[in-house]
Amino acid sequence: MSESVIPSIDFEVTSTAGDARAGSLSIRDTVIETPNLFPVLNFYGGGTINSNYGGGIHRTVKEFMIGHERINGGDYSKFFDGVMTSVSSLTDYNITRERYDDYVSQPIKERDVFSPFSGILFIDSGGFKFLSSDELDGSNFQIEIDQEKVYEIQQKMGADIIVNLDRPISPDDTHNQRIEKAQQTGKNIAKFLELSSDFRGARYLTLHGYNYSMMDEFLTEITRYTSAETLRSAFDGIALGSLVPKKDDRNALIDAVIDCRAVLEDWGFEELPLHVLGISSRAIPLLVALGVDTFDSSTYLQTAINGGYCTSLMETVDVSEADPEQCDCTVCSSEYLKEWMLGDAPYQKDMLGAVAMHNLIIQKRSIFEIRDRVRCGETEPLIEYIESTVAQDKPTREHAHRVVNHSLGGYF
Amino acid sequence: MRKNPKVNEVNEFLEIASDFEDPLEVIRESLSNAYDANASNVEIEIRSREMGSDIIIDDDGDGMNQRDLESFFDLGNSRKTDSIGYKGHGTKIFYKSDRIVVNTASDDANLRAEMDEPWKKLNQRELPQYEVTETPVRGGNSGTRIRIRNFRSGQGFDPESLTYKKIEHYLKWKTIAGSTAYLFDDEDREMNITVKLGDEIDDSRPKLETTTRFEFPDERLEPDHSSEFPAERMCKHYNPTEIEIEYEGGTTTLQIVGMVGGKAARNELPTYGKHSAQFGVWLAKDHIKVERVNEAISHDNEFLHFFFVVNCQDIELSANRESIRNKSSPVYQRLTEEAEYYLSKVAQDPWFKEYLETRRDAEIKRRARNRRSSLKDRRERIESGKALEPTNRTEVLLALERADGKSGASTITVEDFDPNADVHAIVRQGGKLRNAAVHRSLTDHFEDDLTFEEVDLIICWEYGDPTTLREYERMGYLGDEVEFQLENNGLVYGDDGQSFIEILCLNQESDKVTQQAVISD
């Protein structure tokens, strides 16, 4: 009896508003709506099963993810419908070999402790961290990292979306350095496709460059190792990387995404979902308008670690000045968690973790609202959203107006 | 005991009439009054007289009844509420004259009012009076004719300064004749305006005819690539937009309309003087432009490409309508914020970016063409056998290299060059490294206030003005004595007279200089 062949991944655009698109991304039996934001999370942070595998503030966020009794239970699953983690974060907490072996011994979603988590698990190759050292460096062991090892770990951790091991570029790179990195990435891609031919999740191709020519050249270089035709048929999505150093330069970010869309169209990749790696959540409304489908961001955590409490996607106040009474999110509605946020928590990580969860809810709600507006199928609702958020902030106003003029039909 | 404050009527009249400094304001007030009186036509005639000007203003509006006539002569007693001239100040400018005669026909009355010597009397601290006579009404011919004799027009109405061009510009930028109301209101009334100047003022044409509508130059979105200035006639209209805004204490409406365009497009408007004084963003009331708020356009965008009118009925004007009074009010704050917000959208319009790009590209090409012609000059100079004339340090070193190449004698090699350091170059001469200051003229060393510390050698193209050098010898330099020994190719510096600095002057006999420098080292 032959098994019926069900495509393991499906990306369907259900509505568009200008260049923005809303749709659904199905991987195996998990479906998420796009545009969407994947919070960055360390599943393994030095601890054991008893501490949900630890990780300080990450531990508390994981407790929210699984509705643990320490945070008084509750269902936070819709904020974790997609989560991003990285191969390189495995040794962030200076673990021993034994612990490492334990971490990769079972897929995340198959562990009882994480069983309430049913979202899409995106596991980045950690290329940026491995630029400086090709090793996973624990307390008493080193593991040399190459494409084969990265794929092995991604698989062992039970990824739904994986990317090839890449060599991200930096704005200071010379042309030769960029070419060399593209060629290394190209070799990894060939290896990656060979290794992962029976992978049942989604494979994303990393793309690097700050403008059309750089991205076009990157693709030209990698096609020295894998034909464009193979790239088109094998990959299920595109992950645009190397933009972290440009995250505060909105014009550069917008240029890169506009050019990326153009390159993808010219290379025949325009129907694939486009993910932008590691960009701060504030840029999301503009990048959605330009046609980006998914994002990952650790801003919710970083903001909390820096004592920031988000009042909206665009605004943050010091947690000491926060007024949870003004917020109706699940965290702020709980007297127990409100006390944590205001400092009466068992540990500092719990206070920060509660604030981080609140921040994530604010960001996810924003993306839900943005998605709803794209779903209207007209540009006006999205323009209204951008006008009432990004355009209210004077330094980002010109970018908001630029994007509306470029991608949402324009004002004139 | 309760007392009423008193008003010195004569002083008030004098004050208000004097407030109107620009005699062209007579025209503005007359047009506003005619428009408020629903006129379809108004004609203004100005003739130059020895003591001033005679002015006749004729309109076919509703005319004035007894009460209107009182308002015309009274101060601050306007009967109008929602019209342009509601303050009752404007017509008082006419008091700066020898005689005012008003003939007006309305449905109620046919009136004639005369006032003699108003300006003279006011200056004698006497309140001028006017006499009104009434004749029977003749139906169907309403209108008003105002004759002002010897209006004290100062310099403004001089034949030398008053021209049709100047008036047209004034009409379109400062009066109801430049109204943009018709772009927002389909039923807006149009008024024909005729201005006649006596031949003694401007005989270039018989009259000026226009209407109360500000017409934008035709839109042209594409560049003209056949022109050296392809963006010059580009022009884009930004359609009339109404924006409701809330402010602390109320709501108001902004009416914004405008264009962005190149110089040639802007020149199709009645311009007078510099574009930088005219273009940008105007705040308006009654659709008459009042003041510019160019800061509403971000600094990257030169305001003079923009011409926008932001009308708001909730701004308050000074008596002479030249400025906005309520700038500290919440409504003004909000309206400028909103104007800035709107203009940010315009500045991010891809068309505007293309326009700027077109201008920039054309400018670069023009510069390249100019460089080509300068290149041609340079090549011709070489062909004609003229030698290199250094203009900067790098060229001086180039000349040094050539001089060395020719001499075949002791050579100097430049080993290091840093034009921004005090020691500009380190040269190798006869196997030794020497520190050199490099100048086009020897005098430059002194004019740049450079010391002789660590300097072994000065390489220059020429000595420069000998009298300048002699002055340094006479006055000393940086507190020490200096003596030029040009015949020995050097200078002596310092009170002890021991510091000898070599000078290598390339435009002299270089062989001899070079050898001397080596010997002295």
TrEMBL record, chain A:
Query: Which GO BP annotation is one of this protein's?
Result: tRNA wobble guanine modification
The EC number of this protein is: 2.4.2.-
Keywords, sorted A to Z = Glycosyltransferase, Transferase, tRNA processing
Superkingdom of the source species: Archaea
Q: Which residues form the tRNA-guanine(15) transglycosylase-like domain?
A: 114-384
High-level lineage: Archaea, Methanobacteriati, Methanobacteriota, Stenosarchaea group, Halobacteria
- Per its UniProt record, what InterPro entries does this chain match? ArchSynthase1/Queuine_TRR, TGT-like_sf, tRNA_ribo_trans-like
Q: Which GO terms describe its molecular function?
A: glycosyltransferase activity
Which source organism?
A: Natrinema salsiterrestre
- Protein name, please? tRNA-guanine transglycosylase
Q: Which residue windows are transmembrane per the record?
A: none
Cross-referenced SUPFAM superfamilies: tRNA-guanine transglycosylase (SSF51713)
Alphabetical GO CC annotations of the entry are:
cytoplasm
UniProtKB/TrEMBL annotation, chain B:
Q: Which UniProt keywords apply?
A: ATP-binding, Nucleotide-binding
InterPro entries referenced in this protein's UniProt entry, alphabetically: HATPase_C_sf
Q: Which SUPFAM superfamilies match?
A: ATPase domain of HSP90 chaperone/DNA topoisomerase II/histidine kinase
For this chain, one GO molecular function annotation is: ATP binding
* Name of the molecule in the record: ATP-binding protein
* Species, as recorded: Natrinema salsiterrestre
